[in-house]
Amino acid sequence: MKPQTLPLNRPKTYRVKSFGCQMNVYDGERMGELLAEKGIAPAPEGEEADLVVLNTCHIREKAAEKVYSDIGRLKKEDGTKPIIAVAGCVAQAEGEEIMERAPSVSMVVGPQAYHRLPDMLDKAVKGQRATDTDMPAIAKFDSLPKRKKRSPTAFLTVQEGCDKFCTYCVVPYTRGAEISRPYSDLIDEAYRLVDAGAREITLLGQNVNAWSGEDANGRRAGLGELIHAIARIDGLERIRYTTSHPNDMDDALIEAHGSSDKLMPYLHLPVQSGNDRVLKAMNRAHTAESYLRLLERFRTVRPDIALSGDFIVGFPGETEAEFEDTLSLIDEVRYSQAFSFKYSPRPGTPAATMDNQIAPEVMSERLHRLQARLNRDQIAFNEASVGKTCQVLVERKGKHPGQWLGKSPWLQSVWFEGEAQIGDLIEVELVEAGPNSLKGALLTPAIA
Ligand code: SAH
Ligand code: SF4
Ligand code: F3S
């Protein structure tokens, strides 16, 4: 690798561009906080920054190619290139290659090493390119600045990494082994977020329900207990968590849905396929039946719970009949919303070299049919909500004056007109349903 010899000007402004999952968004915010602590300001809207962090995702197709084209396009108003850092999962997977192929990149930093970004920047301004894709256990969180984010909704990473090794997935390689952040650190960060204005916290993890720790009394705690503890924070009104794995679900978490008012009636639980042979080949270690039974338990404690999932069509060897099992599972569950993807062979994963890779046109056709069912159920769920009253947490202004946008407890987007402020919890009646949002009518003024 050729070191860059020209020293660079110290950046005054930064921009973090995050792709991929919510954890990447969280990481992006934390990198921003680190840079802000060093006196670098967020770049004004519409202006290119002196330092751009591309916080990348490697989960599907052509992720790396997109990074190279983004790098090529970056240009400041005066025609010069900003200082470029590549972070996130592509950085982890292909760091060395990026350094070789893209001379304009000064820094490559993996998801477990980004707390070192300021040091790397010091080197970069001296003209030394730096790569850091180490995976030190937990060190990152200890050396991040205290949170200052001001927003009614906030993410809080509680668990990171994955030991499941689903045969199609890069995450165990890019994020490393499962680790849980300590209980007291999480309670502390949750208090800070609420002090700064958060009314809803979403607990994040690649397998968030694999979180485990010890509570203040030294007792073993799982995600259910952690949720109860965070629910005791005054001023915090809503708790969500994502993404769960069917095999890490425990009784306390299911019970929390029945006993905690602050835990929202929503569960994102990916299943990927409704066919047991495919699930086995994916190394999911659960069956369609065990997944359905698990959802039943949630519905028993919280009958109005909205269910969401992830699906992959066209996994190697998937037959038409096996694909139809996935459609049947969807018919049985009736998801309120869901995410679905064509299988994408990821370099280095076992599935990428399996026989019987499915033709792209077959995948497209299956995805089309699957999404038609999911859309049908999403619309039905929204229509069935009409007439209900619920609280909406106001997140932002709508397009027209006097219009506000927020989320229902079931994570539907709701817009309404009237007196409100960002951060209010407003009681509305849901009066009209569209496929992706609902219209609400104001019932009472904001609650506190
Ligand atoms: N940890 C979570 C999800 C992580 S990735 C879980 O296991 O549930 C988010 C989603 O991307 C996965 O649920 C899966 O549906 C999809 N995905 C992951 N790897 C993929 C691949 N190689 N091709 C297509 N979709 C993929
Ligand atoms: Fe990927 Fe499977 Fe881990 Fe989810 S559980 S991150 S799909 S390996
Ligand atoms: Fe993408 Fe990495 Fe998240 S691959 S989905 S950014 S864990």
What does this structure look like?
- This protein is α/β, with parallel strands linked by helices.
- Among the domains are: 13-136, Methylthiotransferase, N-terminal domain (Rossmann fold, 3-Layer(aba) Sandwich); 389-442, OB fold (Dihydrolipoamide Acetyltransferase, E2P).
- Helix content is 33%, strand content 23%.
- The protein has 13 helices and 21 strands.
- It has helices at 22-37, 63-73, 88-101, 117-125, 139-142, 171-175, 183-195, 223-231, 251-259, 276-281, 288-301, 320-333, 360-385; strands at 13-18, 41-42, 51-56, 83-87, 105-109, 130-132, 153-157, 159-160, 179-180, 200-204, 212-214, 220-222, 238-242, 266-268, 306-313, 337-342, 389-397, 403-407, 413-417, 425-433, 437-442.
- The strands form six sheets. It has a six-stranded parallel beta sheet with strand order 2-1-3-4-5-6, with helices on both faces. A five-stranded mixed barrel has the order 17-18-19-21-20. It has a three-stranded parallel beta sheet with strand order 7-10-13, with helices on both faces.
- Helix 1 links the parallel strand 1 and strand 2.
- It is globular and about 65 Å long.
- It starts with 12 loop residues before the first strand and ends in a 6-residue tail after the last strand.
- 43% of the residues are buried.
- The model has no long low-confidence stretch (mean pLDDT 94).
- It binds S-adenosyl-L-homocysteine (SAH), iron/sulfur cluster and FE3-S4 cluster.
- The site of S-adenosyl-L-homocysteine (SAH) has 17 residues, from strand 15.
- Residues 20-21, 23-24, 57-59, 88-89, 170-171, 174-175 line the site of FE3-S4 cluster.
